[in-house]
Every structure is written in C-alpha cells, then in structure tokens.
Write a structure and sequence with these properties.
3 copies of one chain form a homotrimer. Chain A has about 140 residues and is an alpha+beta fold. Chain A has one domain (about 1-75, about 85-135): Sandwich (Jelly Rolls), CATH 2.60.120.460. Chain A has helices at about 20-30, 55-70, 85-95; strands at about 1-10, 15-20, 35-45, 50-55, 100-105, 110, 115-120, 130-135. In chain A, strand 5 (about 100-105) and strand 6 (about 110) form a beta hairpin. The longest helix of chain A is centred in the middle third of the chain and has 14 residues, at about 55-70. Chain A is elongated, with a radius of gyration of 16 Å. Chains in contact: A-B, A-C, B-C. The interface between B and C is medium-sized, with 34 and 32 residues.
Chain lengths: ~140, ~140, ~140
C-alpha cells in the first residue's frame, strides 16, 4: 500500500467564501503515484466543509442563501455565549457535509462530468488547513 | 491490497426517486474477493446522493417532504438563471449527505440490522452513474 | 495492508444525547498498529450520526435546537404510521452527516486543534453499536 499526505493552507479574504480546490487535490493524487485507491479531503477546522458539486457561481450563492435562511449567521447561539461569533458556521459545515472521500482510478480522480471539489469556508480570514490523504496502490 | 471498481448505470422513471442498491453493492464486494476493507459508493452526478438508512416507504416520503419544505424544488435559485431547473436538487443532495464509505468484514458489508443503501435521485429521467470502489485485502 | 475492526457498544441515558468518543477511536487506532491510513467511524444504527466538531456544550445545544426547529421531533411523519416514533431521528442523522472517515498519520488521528469525535444519538435508551475500522500500514 502506498500513501501520501499533504496539508493545503488557505487564508480566505472573506469570512464566508467558496474556493475550488480540484487542481490541488489532483496534484497530490498525481504525486502519490497511486493508480487505484481513495483520497480523503478533510478540513482540519470545524467551521468549514469540503464539498463536491458544481463549479457555478449562481449555485454557490444559492447554497449560502439557503443556509442563511435556515440557520441565520447572526442568529442567537449558545456557542456564542463563550465569546465566539461562529455558532452558525459550525452548524452550516455539518449541513453541507463535512468531508469527502474520492475515488482514484488509473492514477486520476475518477469523476463524473461535473464533479468539482470545493472548500466552503464559513469563518475565514485566518489561516486554515485542509488535509489530503491518498491511500492505494 | 486488492481493489475493484464498478459503475452502476441507472435511469430513473421519475425526476425524484429513491432506489435501493444494497444488493448491487454487495455483489461488487463479493466479486472483489476483499475480506476486510472499505467500499466507497459515490454518485458521479451532483444532483444525487447515496444514503444509508431504512427500507421503509413512509420514511422515504418524509425525507422528500422535509426537503421540499426547507428548500422548495420550484423555488427561486440563481443556478436556474443558467437555464437549468435543478438548483434545489444540488442543495438537496448536500443536505442528505452525498456519499457513503462502508465497512467490509469477512467478505461482506458489515451492517447493523436495518442498514440499507439507497440512491436518492433528485434530477432523474436520464442516464446516471454510481461508482462502487472496493479496497482492502 | 493492516486492518482492525472494533465495535463500541453504547446505551445512552437519554433519548437524545451527544457523547464524545475521540478517546475510544484513538485507542483502536493505537491498537491497530497502523501508522498511516484511514479509520471509518460508522454508527450501525440509522437514527444516529458520528460527527467531528467542537467539544463545547453550548454548541451541542445549538445543534439540537436547530434540528428541532427545522424538523420537529414530535412532528407528523409517515414513518411513524408504522408504529415507530422516530421519524425525525432518521432525518436528523442525515442532516448532521451520518459517518466520518478520519486520517491516521504517524500512528495517531491527524487532527486539527479543535477536532473531536462525537456520537449523536437521536433515538437512544437502548443498546447501539458503532463500528470502528482501521485500514492502512
């Protein structure tokens, strides 16, 4: 079994931001030399999610509007009694699905026509890390 | 390490439909010869989800009613300004959890008494694929 | 490839309860002897979720309040026509993300500063199992 682990460091310009990271993940897969296996893409912070969906800016606005509608960012959260202001961000990350595990076949991400990988930051403007771990052969 | 990858092709009769796929996944696990490992079950399209839950038709109606209630299928979505009509479907798939990774022990899915695998199609009536990748030994 | 599978048995005192299980998962990782790989943490019951987030009791209350607000526990569910009373619990588990796959590096969970593993029980007061499966080398 081969494996390779890399940490992608990001610092978003905005508190809430969606960033495409397909190329970075593909690059780690390529460097790993794994032809057949899995790659875990996992935010190491708990107010962010890694999501596979469409590279379409209107849809990205829809996601954020729906989350705001269901769980308002400036709402009342017991978590914020601790001095934090990111209660909603912790909840949004769960609702979007926190992480993904992706297939590698013939040394590449085995993706359908529209699958792209995104980092959904819900409490940014500070340094965050995403772990990319490839295992396989 | 052994691995096996198969692609399950589906074309649902309805736009929104829930289909049990436990047997198809179990079949790939069996063919793989893997006795201990993991199987990724991942829709290759971004308006569908793979879900482990109960094989009970009332519950399936509940899921769809809740999704419709929270994120109306015919609502207003910026994504639909592109000419698409599936904005909600992209969001529903995230809210249900897009994919699953399942355990294989003694050559079989290592499931609790009620775990069943379903494909939740939210924009069907056209050909879609589900990737099933087994790794292990 | 090495692997190790253990089953954690729990019986919560309350119907709805959040329990930290980081130490139990770390213990299985340690016993597995795997230095680099993945660990799947998966509830074997379909009204519970395994979640990575913050060890902060106010946030845990926020999660439960948001779920109750969006999908009331005592609401009307077709699933409950079967004699069950846990329709909402099946839906909550999907909304929180049913399972996690976690990275192992240098023989330990490769976690960010705030990542902790929790079992979210939504229909407890009876014996439940969580599967922990480590694979790697």
């Amino acid at each position: 079994m081969k494996s390779k682990t890399e940490y992608l460091t990001l610092n978003t310009e905005k508190k809430i931001q969606i960033i495409r990271i397909t190329d970075q993940v593909e690059n780690v897969v390529s460097k790993s030399g794994v032809k057949d296996g899995l790659v875990l893409v996992n935010p190491m912070h708990i107010t962010a999610a890694v999501v596979v969906n469409d590279n379409e800016s209107g849809l990205h606005k829809d996601y954020l509007r729906v989350l705001e509608n269901l769980v308002p960012y400036e709402g009342e959260y017991r978590h914020n009694d601790t001095g934090e202001d990111n209660g909603a961000a912790h909840i949004w990350r769960q609702m979007m699905g926190h992480q993904v595990v992706l297939p590698i076949t013939n040394g590449k991400l085995d993706f359908g026509p529209w699958e792209q990988i995104f980092y959904f930051e819900f409490d940014g403007m500070r340094q965050k890390r995403i772990l990319i771990k490839v295992i396989g052969e």
